[in-house]
Design goal:
Organism: Bombilactobacillus mellifer
Number of strands: 4
Subcellular location: Cell membrane
Shape: globular
Order of helices and strands: HHHHEHHHHEEHHHHHEHHHHHH
Pfam families: Xan_ur_permease
Distance between the termini: 54 Å
Protein name: Xanthine/uracil/vitamin C permease
Number of helices: 19
Strand content: under 5%
Main location: membrane
Largest sheet: 2 strands, antiparallel
Oligomer: single chain
Structural class: mainly alpha
Length: about 450
């Protein structure tokens, strides 16, 4: 009976996720899902912290964060069969708190109404396949640049989170202090992962992260949880608040907020999906198979999150860690979603996943993702400059959308100047004007920032 059950389960996974076709195994996919989860688990604590600064209940946001991630990951698994996880995005929650609530003086309840409306519009655009058409129309060189830019971006996040790069008044950034013990914990993790990868050990990134966490616990740099199990906090303080405050949309200022949330979510997810698809080898003839299903999974999770009480969800760049250890199908994201279910009851355990544990993985994966640079047409300046601006813009502005904007503000004009105007599609011209409007709106809003 046990063997029969195992055979049936194996057959179900094969039929659902086409493991043989993708040349992967159940064990490899589960390892990838674990790696992705460990890499992005920080959002369970970072999101409540950021939204809590806006006055939202942290416990409710914690639960809303986990459930929206579960919905997004499982929809991505079964609808699109992609190893790309979904959870509330960092840039959106920072814009919500610091630019909308604190700078503009809009209550978090009204701001959440703006998120809900943006989510509805987002879902409609996905259903009408507008997002799919736009992503397919993005030139190949810019798609490659997005992948490399995201690689540099997440490497920079890792360097910063691990303490190797810090703020510097005279030069903006500088090297971190080597007298800080946690910085050496990051360095230890980098070397462990790098050595394992050089020796081609399967699951190198995940093993390295576990080793880093264990060392941190042993030497006291990571606190041992006082208890292991806790009930999931109630979402009652935030559930449905956005819907009950829709009257706030009578204020024209709120529609600017809606537009920003819509555009940022649109291009953050588009850029991340393209970059991760390049890394995973999903792209076919410059297009992503089942992109419509992937975008619908993202849209539905964003809508669900706005109802429960969290800011827009997004495809997660940390999925690159799971892809790097071999994740190729939706079984990876199914595993990640299942672990988010467990996290609802084992939240104290997740406190051991500190920045120093995730930083080495992000740095190593960033190095892997910049490999797409080799396929960009660097000998053609009209392509090289927009690609460079995308790549440099993401880490230097600390925002994926800004990097994409820099590329589209220059690509159509330079292509036309080079006598290649006929190669530029109408969508590229449209996006150029969209980003001009977006940057103008951001400039006239308080703080002039979305992240």
């Amino acid at each position: 009976m046990e063997t029969g059950t195992g055979t049936f389960f194996q057959g179900f996974l094969e039929r659902t996720f086409h493991l043989s076709e993708q040349k992967t195994t159940v064990r490899r996919e589960i390892t990838a899902g674990l790696t992705t989860f460990v890499s992005m688990a920080y959002i369970l604590f970072v999101n409540p912290s950021i939204l809590g600064a806006a006055g939202m209940n942290k416990g409710a946001v914690f639960t809303a964060t986990a459930i929206s991630a579960i919905i997004g990951c499982w929809l991505m698994a079964f609808l699109a069969n992609y190893p790309i996880a979904i959870a509330p995005g960092l840039g959106d929650n920072a814009f919500f708190t610091y630019s909308v609530v604190l700078a503009m003086g809009i209550s978090w309840q009204k701001a959440m109404a703006g998120v809900f409306v943006a989510s509805v519009l987002f879902t409609i655009l996905s259903f009408l396949k507008v997002r799919e058409i736009v992503i397919d129309a993005i030139p190949q060189d810019l798609k490659l640049a997005m992948a490399a830019g995201i690689g540099l971006f997440i490497a920079f996040v890792g360097l910063q989170g691990g303490g190797l790069v810090v703020a510097n008044k005279s030069s903006l950034v500088g090297i971190g202090s080597m007298t800080v013990p946690t910085t050496w914990l990051t360095i230890f993790g980098i070397f462990v992962i790098a050595i394992l990868m050089a020796r081609k050990v399967p699951g190198s990134i995940f093993i390295g992260m576990i080793a880093t966490a264990v060392l941190g616990l042993v030497i006291g740099l990571i606190k041992t949880p006082t208890h292991w199990v806790s009930a999931a906090p109630s979402m009652q303080p935030t559930f449905g608040v956005g819907i009950t405050h829709l009257s706030a949309l009578a204020d024209p200022q709120m529609w600017a907020v809606v537009l920003i949330f819509l555009l940022v979510a649109f291009f953050d997810t588009a850029g991340t999906l393209i970059g991760l698809a390049q890394q995973a080898g999903i792209m076919r003839n410059n297009k992503m198979p089942r992109i419509g299903q992937a975008l619908m999974a993202d849209s539905i999770s964003m809508l669900a999150g706005s109802v429960m009480g969290t800011t827009p969800t997004s495809a997660y760049v940390e999925s690159s860690a799971g892809i790097a250890v071999g994740g190729k199908t939706g079984l990876t994201t199914l595993t990640t979603g299942f672990l988010f279910v467990l996290s609802l009851f084992f939240s104290p355990l997740l406190t051991v996943v500190t920045n120093q544990v995730t930083a080495p993985a992000l740095i190593i994966v960033g190095a892997l993702m910049v490999s797409s640079l080799r396929d960009i047409q660097w000998d053609k300046f009209e392509v090289a400059l927009p690609a460079f601006l995308v790549i440099a813009g993401m880490p230097l502005t600390y925002n994926i959308s800004y990097g994409i904007a820099f590329g589209f503000l220059t690509y159509p004009l330079l292509m036309a100047a080079a006598g290649r105007r006929k190669e530029v599609n109408g969508i590229s011209w449209t996006l150029m004007f969209v980003f001009i409007v977006l940057l103008y709106i951001l400039n006239i809003m308080p703080n002039g920032t979305m992240a």
